[in-house]
């Protein structure tokens, strides 16, 4: 069955790339709505942005979606993960700025807010996509692949020359609350060279959060 939030859930903080403050409030939505962002600070044009694959802009280092009137919202990854990981199918996401706050760099704060608000079932069946054959994308040395499976599973690895990161891997079945227990507090990280490159492009302006990045191969 489809689900939505039982009561509203709110968080506030600073955007990682814009450095802008924003408040996010998750509200219930009717069956079949999906996840829809509403830019409440935009009042002169359509301010609704459905979180759909065909609304995604090419935006390295953050996921950005846009509607037909050019209204955008950025860095939605952790919020979308929190909603998916807690099993919320329908929600209106009200936000008063252009970027979702980075919070502690993970989805954990959002997950806690959603669980505190509660999740209720709706009188509507859920449609799902079944992966019938492998689908793969590659960019340089990085790649990601979807494969058919009996249930939701993930298997990933990273490999960095920096001693503080090194080679890490994890395989996890994503049923029965595993995302909440084992994955939602995984934090975004980067190296000082990455921060310098992003700031040269006018990104990564959320300075408070960036005190927690990995700097020159050392935990900072």
Automatic annotation (TrEMBL):
SUPFAM superfamilies: Ribosomal protein S5 domain 2-like. Its EC number is 3.5.1.108. One of its GO terms (cellular component) is membrane. GO terms for molecular function: metal ion binding; UDP-3-O-acyl-N-acetylglucosamine deacetylase activity. Pfam families: LpxC (PF03331). Its cofactor is Zn(2+). The keyword Hydrolase applies. It catalyses: a UDP-3-O-[(3R)-3-hydroxyacyl]-N-acetyl-alpha-D-glucosamine + H2O = a UDP-3-O-[(3R)-3-hydroxyacyl]-alpha-D-glucosamine + acetate. It comes from the Bacteria. Coiled coil: none annotated. One of its GO terms (biological process) is lipid A biosynthetic process. Pathway: Glycolipid biosynthesis; lipid IV(A) biosynthesis; lipid IV(A) from (3R)-3-hydroxytetradecanoyl-[acyl-carrier-protein] and UDP-N-acetyl-alpha-D-glucosamine: step 2/6. Keywords: Hydrolase, Lipid A biosynthesis, Lipid biosynthesis, Lipid metabolism, Metal-binding, Zinc. Catalyzes the hydrolysis of UDP-3-O-myristoyl-N-acetylglucosamine to form UDP-3-O-myristoylglucosamine and acetate, the committed step in lipid A biosynthesis. NCBIfam families: lpxC. This is UDP-3-O-acyl-N-acetylglucosamine deacetylase. It comes from Rubellimicrobium mesophilum DSM 19309.
């Amino acid at each position: 069955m489809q689900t939505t939030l039982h009561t509203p859930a709110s968080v506030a903080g600073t955007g990682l790339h814009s450095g802008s403050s924003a408040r996010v409030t998750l509200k219930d939505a009717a069956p079949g709505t999906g996840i829809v962002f509403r830019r409440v600070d935009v009042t002169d044009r359509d301010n609704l942005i459905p979180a759909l694959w065909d609304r995604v802009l090419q935006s390295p280092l953050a996921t950005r979606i846009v509607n037909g009137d050019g209204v955008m919202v950025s860095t939605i990854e952790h919020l979308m993960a929190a909603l998916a990981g807690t099993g919320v199918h329908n929600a209106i996401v009200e936000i008063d700025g252009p970027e979702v706050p980075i919070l502690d760099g993970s989805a954990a704060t959002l997950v806690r807010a959603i669980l505190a608000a509660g999740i209720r079932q709706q009188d509507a069946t859920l449609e799902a996509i079944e992966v019938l054959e492998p689908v793969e994308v590659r960019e340089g040395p990085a790649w990601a692949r979807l494969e058919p499976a009996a249930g939701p599973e993930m298997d990933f690895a990273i490999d960095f020359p920096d001693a503080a990161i090194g080679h890490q891997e994890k395989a996890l079945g994503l049923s029965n609350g595993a995302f909440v227990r084992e994955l939602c507090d995984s934090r975004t990280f980067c190296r000082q060279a990455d921060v310098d490159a992003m700031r040269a492009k006018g990104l990564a302006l959320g300075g408070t959060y960036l005190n927690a990045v990995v700097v020159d191969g050392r935990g900072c």
